[in-house]
Recover the amino acids of this structure.
């Protein structure tokens, strides 16, 4: 697909088939995601992945079975890949402590940072991942980790310094689709409403 077509036709997918995603394909997508810009090339983007039947480990924590009948997107639970999007700030503190970066004063503490570049970089990579997935016919959903974070941290041994920004479900979209998200009918802003030449 042309880049513009990837961007224009991607939408969040909330209904998947159970068909697996081959490791080689997943790695290809993540290789593209790794090409995102990264402050000081620190590259703190990590994905903690559940595959296939093991995705139930994620869902058992985040959507208890007694709540599933009322869940609006039951086929979301069929996605063969669930990835926790993680931003490792330690990579940034280490990188900015290196000789060519010490002048920035950012290596000492995260409080010195004007913005959390680790979350910015992970968001850039995640967007590339969603686009790369769409380009090969996969669907994806980025969604909030609304509950169960500590339990997942314990289960997956995710260090405290690593932020979990959200979750990506990846898989082959079901033709029949699913109910659209609640925000789907909101109009998309126009370029001219976003661009503020010279002044807000
Ligand atoms: C930071 C972020 C958090 C989101 N959280 C959720 C979520 O928890 N559940 C959900 O169904 N969609 C979630 N979405 C998807 C948005 O609703 C969706 O991207 C938006 O409505 C635009 O639709 P589109 O991506 O299909 O174009 C999230 C998107 C972003 C960027």
């Amino acid at each position: 697909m042309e880049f513009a077509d990837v961007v224009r036709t991607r939408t969040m997918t909330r209904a998947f088939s159970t068909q697996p995603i081959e490791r080689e394909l997943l790695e290809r997508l993540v290789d593209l995601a790794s090409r995102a810009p990264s402050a000081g090339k620190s590259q703190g983007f990590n994905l903690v992945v559940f595959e296939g039947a093991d995705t139930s480990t994620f869902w058992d924590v985040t959507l208890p079975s007694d709540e599933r009948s009322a869940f609006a997107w039951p086929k979301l639970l069929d996605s063969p890949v669930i990835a926790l999007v993680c931003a490792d700030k330690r990579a940034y503190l280490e990188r900015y402590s290196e000789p060519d970066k010490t002048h920035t004063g950012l290596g000492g503490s995260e409080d010195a940072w004007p913005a959390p570049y680790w979350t910015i970089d992970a968001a850039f990579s995640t967007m590339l991942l969603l686009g790369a997935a769409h380009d090969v016919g996969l669907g994806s959903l980025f969604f909030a980790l609304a509950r169960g974070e500590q339990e997942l941290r314990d289960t997956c041994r995710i260090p405290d310094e690593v932020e979990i920004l959200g979750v990506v479900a990846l898989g082959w979209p079901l033709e029949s689709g699913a109910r659209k998200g609640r925000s789907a009918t909101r109009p998309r802003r126009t370029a001219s409403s976003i661009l503020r030449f010279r002044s807000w």
In short: The chain has one domain: 3-174. The two ends are 35 Å apart (CA to CA).
